[in-house]
Specification:
The complex is a heterodimer of chains A (263) and B (289).
Chain A (H helix, E strand, L loop, with lengths): L2 E10 L8 E11 L4 E6 L5 H9 L6 E6 L2 E2 L7 E4 L11 H5 L1 H5 L4 H14 L15 H14 L4 E5 L7 H18 L2 E5 L3 H7 L2 E6 L4 E7 L2 H6 L4 H6 L1 H22 L1
Helix pairs in contact in A: 4-5, 7-10
Chain B lengths: L14 H6 L19 H20 L11 H14 L6 H32 L1 H14 L4 H12 L3 H23 L5 H9 L4 H35 L8 H10 L3 H29 L7
Helix pairs in contact in B: 3-11, 4-5, 4-7, 4-9, 4-10, 6-7, 7-9, 8-9, 9-10, 9-11, 10-11
Classes of the chains: A alpha/beta (263), B mainly alpha (289).
């Protein structure tokens, strides 16, 4: 799988007397097989716009997006989205929520329940198949969302701050869970976060974005997730001097952007 | 001197202080939620007090029976009509015909109003076309267009059911229309990203999430239906609860008027309870996600 983003710009047209806004300017990005790309940046830098482009909810003003050499036009099951919240269907139980994508694609009840069950177990939700989703904790709801995204065997997972609404402890556990799932299923991932630590910990590549106009200013290759998957303890990795040095470096970039916007 | 005032909590709470300040809650309650607390006992007491005052003023002869007949005379009247009918028609027939008119109009309004409301929510074209006529007639009292109904559709069942239909129709349409907006954009995007068609999004996401608002709209709608019943049975009716109330009032049979009002209230309330029960069964997730 290869996702190519080639000189893509997005301009929101002028409205209410305000001048047109350049949300993204000449973005070049390539996402390859089994890559875990994390996008980080001050608010308004166009992270979500970029995700919406890849998902097909938005079409670029100029430039081109291709997935395996086919142009991206509109949403499709080869790109699954995990949202921050509000994306589950409260009238369905856990199993039916996970099986929702397959149901949309016309898969029969027996087959879709079997597949859904596999992912329910993979995400550690076994025993909750019949539970109503609105009674689950935030962390479990996010796991349902991830299981649902995986059922249709997408080429890439698009995660829009999937852990943003979780408490700190649940969040750290969920980070490791997502890393393991990513490793087991061998998907490519495009992951948005506000947390520098999370970004460094999870990604194989980090893009730092900057607002007005939204663009990629820095790119880093990251070793940390592979260390964790090779058996290193998560907290030890996050406390290592390499990790801390890079964290401070990235934070400095982002703070400088925030200040530039404020003045 | 003023600087040495004791802290607020230490002040003896006067009556105004107690009324104007929120009190700490009991365990299990949340501090500051408006209108929190159980009202069952107060409601029961309120009803009991109402009947007691009613009984008292009639029993003591403070009010003439013509104006306010005693509760006992209402029960007597009820038994009389139950056994002998009213104006030659059995009591049950009056109830059945009125209920049939209201529910017939209600079902018709739902059958047309719900799809139309959903379509108005989904499509700017449909909304653009149907918004003006509905918004135009909605605030007009049914009594005002009753003469038109009679001129156009005669004095038979059509004009009666149509009048009730119109009063139910507007709230049902508006409820379904705003229900379309209940689905979170994330839910809709999730469905589209699985390759859903517009129709599938409608069927699997928008319709179920609109259900709470649709049920509320149906509850409000049938309430309007009962309100319009008496107006609908004003002209050329020979049966029905509305007819019973109106013709009794012309002969100053106050007990029958009050009896009719009670019967209408009881049926409407029973249906409201049924709708609330359905709501709990069908949309237990309402307001929880």
């Amino acid at each position: 799988m290869r996702l190519n983003i080639d000189e893509v710009s997005v301009v929101y047209p002028a409205s209410d007397g305000r001048p047109p806004v350049s949300a993204l300017s000449k973005i070049d990005l390539e996402i390859g097989d089994k890559e875990f790309i994390v996008a980080l940046g001050a608010s308004g830098c166009g992270k979500s716009t970029l995700l919406n482009l890849i998902a097909g909810f938005l079409s670029p003003t100029s430039g081109q997006l291709t997935l395996d050499d086919m142009p991206v036009c509109g949403p499709g099951a080869d790109r699954a989205v995990v949202f921050q919240k509000h994306a589950l269907l409260p009238w369905l139980n856990v199993l039916d929520n996970v099986a929702f994508g397959l149901r949309i694609q016309g898969v029969g009840a027996a087959a879709r329940n079997e597949t859904a069950n596999r992912f329910v177990k993979l995400l550690g939700l076994d025993g909750f198949q019949k539970s109503p989703v609105y009674k689950l904790s935030g962390g479990m709801q996010q796991r349902v969302g991830i299981a649902r995204a995986l059922t249709c065997n997408p080429k890439i997972l698009l995660m829009d701050e999937p852990l943003g609404a979780l408490d700190a402890l649940t969040r750290e556990k969920a980070q490791e869970l997502i890393l393991n799932i990513w490793n087991d299923t061998a998907k490519s991932v495009f992951f948005i976060t506000h947390s520098v630590e999370e970004a460094l910990f999870m990604g194989t590549k980090l893009i730092v974005m900057s607002p007005r106009p939204g663009r990629i200013t820095h790119r880093f290759d990251l070793p940390f997730s592979r260390q964790v998957l090779a058996g290193a303890a998560a907290r030890a990795v996050k406390a290592s001097s390499d990790f801390i040095r890079l964290r401070e470096q990235v934070l400095e970039i982002i703070f400088a952007d925030e200040e530039a916007v404020a003045t | 001197m003023n600087e040495h005032r004791p802290p607020r909590a230490a002040q003896a709470p006067g009556i105004t202080g107690r009324l104007s300040r929120a009190r700490p809650t009991k365990p299990g309650e949340i501090y500051g939620v408006p209108g929190q607390g159980n009202t069952l006992w107060l409601s029961a007491l309120s009803i009991a007090f109402f009947f007691f005052v009613w009984w008292l003023v009639t029993e003591m002869g403070w009010v003439k029976p013509l104006f306010v007949p005693s509760p006992v005379s209402i029960v007597k009247k009820f038994l009389e009509i139950w056994n002998g009918g009213f104006t030659g028609t059995p009591f049950v027939d009056h109830v059945v015909i009125s209920t049939a008119r209201v529910f017939g109009a209600f079902l018709l309004a739902c059958a047309i109003g719900l799809p139309l409301g959903l379509a108005m929510g989904m499509s700017p074209v449909v909304r653009g076309i149907f918004d003006p006529p509905i918004e135009f007639y909605r605030p007009i009292p049914p009594l005002a267009y009753l003469p038109l109904m009679i001129i156009w559709f005669g004095i038979g069942e059509t004009s009666k059911v149509l009048l009730i239909f119109l009063s139910v129709f507007a709230p049902v349409v508006l409820g379904a229309r705003s229900g379309v907006r209940s689905a979170a954009i994330e839910q809709i995007h999730a469905a589209y990203s699985f390759g859903a068609t517009r129709w599938q999004v409608m069927r699997h996401v928008i319709l179920p999430s609109a259900l709470p608002e649709i049920l509320t709209a149906m509850r409000i709608g049938i309430g309007f239906g009962w309100t319009t019943l008496v107006a609908a049975e004003m002209v050329a009716a020979t049966k029905g609860l509305g007819y019973m109330v109106l013709s009794a009032s012309q002969f100053l049979q106050t007990p029958v008027v009050i009896l009719g009002i009670f019967i209408i209230a009881i049926i409407a309330f029973a249906f409201d309870l049924l709708m609330r029960f359905l709501e709990r069964r069908l949309v237990p997730w309402k307001g929880r996600m």
